[in-house]
Every structure is written in C-alpha cells, then in structure tokens.
Design a protein that fits this description.
This protein is mostly helical. It is built from 11 helices and 2 strands; from the N terminus they run αααββαααααααα.
C-alpha cells in the first residue's frame, strides 16, 4: 500500500474545506471555525490546516483578516473593483494571456446565461451596460473602464459557474488592468474609439449585440441567429494589432530609457 505523504494530507484537508464551502455548510460572510477547532475536527496538525486555508485564500474563496479569523467570500466579490492606483503597465504577454482567458471563459459564460432564458439575472449586466453608455457620452475614460469591466465580469457571475468566477477572481487585478490599458489606448492614443464603443444602438456596437442576445434568452421557438464566438472575438480581436504594436513601441522606449 502506498504511504500517505504530507502533500496528500494537505490536499485531502483542502478538498474537505472546499466541499463544505461549495455545499453551503459555511455560507458567504461566515467565519471559518478556528484553526484549533479545525485541527480537532479533522485530526490533523495546525500546519496542515494553514496550508489548506492558504490555498482557499489563493483561489479567492476566503479572506483571512488579521486578528479576526478567516471568512467565506461571496462569489460576487469579483465585482469589487481593484485599487486602480496599483495598476501598472500591461505587458504584451499579459495581454495575450488575458485575451485567451476571455475567449475561453466569457464565450461559455455568455452561452450559459443565454441558455437560462428568462430565468437569467441580468440586473448587474444591464446596469453596467447603461453605465458604459453614459460614461461614453461624457467621455469619462475611467468610469467607462469600470463599467466595461463590470459588464464582462457580471456575465461571468450570471453564468452561476463558481469555478469561472474563482478563476477570474484570482486574476482580477490583471483583468482590470487589461480593460484600463485597452480603453485608454482607444480613447487617448487612437483618438477615435472603435465600433464596439459606439454610442448608438447600431449593429456595429458589439456590447449592444451581446447585451440584446442575453436579454433575448433561449427560446425554443427561435433559432439562434448569431454566433456567440464571433461576438466575443470582436472584443478580444478589435484593435488587437494596433494595441500590440503600441505595447511593443512602449516596451522599446522603456528599455532605451533604462539604458541611458
């Protein structure tokens, strides 16, 4: 029989805690039992408990508050905006990786929301959509970016897939940095926002197409007329070449500056 090593014990304890969270034994906002109590319940060492809690922190399921304990986070926490003051320049590698992540997760999440039909909760999506329109009208880049971020993140939350939410929550700062830099580029450097930033309700506006698609919802009597993958790709591919060229120029300038 294969001996049980330390790593396996850590994984077993992590999965037990994760299972309790997913099954609602410990609900959002509640505090986890103390470390000594968990040690007693699970008959493991304190180091094992701490290792499991660190993993839960890493995936955004719990938050350890100094002197207060560890609390279960609501999946909606992903919608709490990161501190924009700590946002640094995005790299070409980060941009491409977030693009890939968006195409994989947002396409599926939007499909899942669509499949929910009239049962889908579109309130946060709708609020962000109209918030984008208002911010664009006022040429408020920062507010537009906040609403743009919330629009796409709210679709992921509305899919009711906790793993999707957790994945994006892990990379929340990078996700927001992606939107912040891309929108700044389109507003300030390009000087002419792309079609997907159009103020009208025209078919050229990809946000409007996606929003109307989700509002329509699945109807057995109607055939799905648009290819969701194509709509999502307008977000991830629009201005991509120009933006990547801009990132390369900026990286070169920074490199030359550092050599002076």
């Amino acid at each position: 029989m294969e001996p049980v090593n330390r790593q396996k014990i850590d994984d077993i304890v992590y999965n037990k805690l994760l299972g309790n969270i997913r099954e609602g034994v410990w609900k959002s906002g509640e505090r986890l039992p103390s470390e000594p109590m968990l040690c007693e319940i699970l008959k493991v060492s304190r180091n094992t408990i701490r290792s499991a809690i660190q993993k839960l922190n890493a995936v955004g399921l719990v938050e350890t508050r100094h002197g207060k304990g560890t609390y279960i986070l609501n999946p909606q926490q992903i919608g709490v905006l990161p501190d924009v003051d700590v946002v640094l320049d995005i790299t070409e590698k980060e941009f491409n990786e977030i693009n890939d992540l968006r195409e994989a997760i947002e396409t599926k999440a939007a499909r899942m929301v669509f499949e929910q039909g009239k049962n889908a909760d579109l309130r946060a999506i709708s609020e962000a959509y109209y918030g984008m329109k208002e911010a664009l009208k006022n040429r408020d880049i920062d507010e537009y970016t906040r609403q743009d971020y919330m629009f796409h993140v709210s679709i992921i939350i509305a899919s009711n897939n906790d793993l999707f939410t957790q994945i994006v929550n892990i990379f929340k700062n990078l996700y927001f940095k992606y939107f912040k830099e891309l929108n700044k580029f389109m507003f300030e450097i390009e000087g002419n926002p792309s079609a997907q930033l159009a103020t009208s309700e025209s078919p050229a506006d990809s946000h409007t197409i996606l929003f109307q698609y989700l509002k329509q919802g699945k109807d057995p009597a109607k055939q799905d007329e648009i290819k969701l993958e194509d709509v999502v790709k307008t977000f991830t591919s629009g201005n991509k070449a120009n933006f990547l060229a801009y990132l390369r120029r900026r990286a070169l300038v920074n490199k030359n500056s550092n050599q002076l």
